[in-house]
Amino acid sequence: MEKKNYIIQQSAPIRQSNDRPMDIRVHMQKGSDGTWHYAGDLVRIGGENAIVSNVKISNGRVHPTDEILKEETQEIRQKLEEVSFKICRLLDQIYDYDEVGIDFGVDHEQNPWIIEVNTNDAIGMPSHELFAELPDASVYMRMMERTFERFRVPLILREAFFAETLPPFECDPDEWLSENDLSSALDEVLEKYRPDES
Question: In this structure, are 82 and 179 located in the same domain?
Fold first, then answer.
């Protein structure tokens, strides 16, 4: 082993799924009024022989929470919501974060274990795209709408963003618009509003 600094985490008695690592990602967002919202949750399950549940590293998959937890979903989700709001209120004492992604493990007594807390900062932000992989896209769409509302993006540009590549929302939206060519996306959207000349 190389002479480097390492972080050793104590193992926790959290559940697995068919002997594969599993966790629950909770996404918290601030709305345009500055209040926190429980935006959604999903289950990440690591790939075969994986030691982590991170889907990119382990070639794993995301699943709707109720598909995995079944009849336990409501009770566990209530606990996740309670802890997630407490975490966000604590973070508000440190910095004005807008997006927080919290990874939880759950033990066999339905107790949540905090694995990691991800924030929007200089390194990046918690991924919205995980939620785009779910069969029901409504949670993802609402997350993006809430982000648009927070940055006061005009409605017509919101359609263009959904039609094309979405911008990195950790940047200033006006700065992003000045540096990126939206002509092709706007042409597609404006076509809907152009009067019929026939």
Answer: no
